[in-house]
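Data deposition worksheet. Section B asks for the primary sequence of the deposited chain exactly as it was used as input, without tags or linkers unless they were present during the calculation. Section C holds the resulting structure in token form. Section D is free text for depositor observations; keep each observation to a single sentence. Incomplete worksheets are returned to the depositor.
Section A, Depositor: J.P.
Section B:
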Amino acid sequence: MTKKIMNHQFVWGLKGAVLLLGTLLLLGVWTVLYWSEMLFTESHLVGYYCCVTAQDLPATGTLARTLSDLFRGNVGQHLPSALFIALSAGLTLKGMMRTEQRVQALFLFALLGILFLGASLALVTLSWSISAWLVGPITDAYKGYDRTWYGIVLHFLLWGVYFLAMARVSSAKSY
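Section C:
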């Protein structure tokens, strides 16, 4: 009897350790995704760098200037990242509550995040290549949305695919 109880405790201890490992992995993936989304915001949603003179920028009050100023500000630079992680966490929690296979769910959600990160990096490279091919090389500090809209569209399409996959996984009863 004692041997059976000890074996049972070992199995539960091992399951707990794997669950903890999956949770830490998922939190690590979300941290990297948060920072990668901040880099995307900086490279695609902010239309100018720090050293631009006023005459090189669009006029104050135009849509391009307003959006760029929004994403350059303290709140705006974190807004896409926070929204992305909040939606990911919500879908993950939904999936974790729907299934009894929580360990598999954690690792599956972490895998989806890693796949998103790889696809995102590939799309950023692709979008800058498209921009350089269609618009030409960057010659001044103001890059504008005419240069980055390709990447913005591709990135938000990737968001759609990612959240669709997350919703499918979080709605599944088993994996």
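Section D:
Residues 2-45 form the longest helix (44 residues).
The helical segments are 2-45, 63-72, 74-98, 102-134, 145-171.
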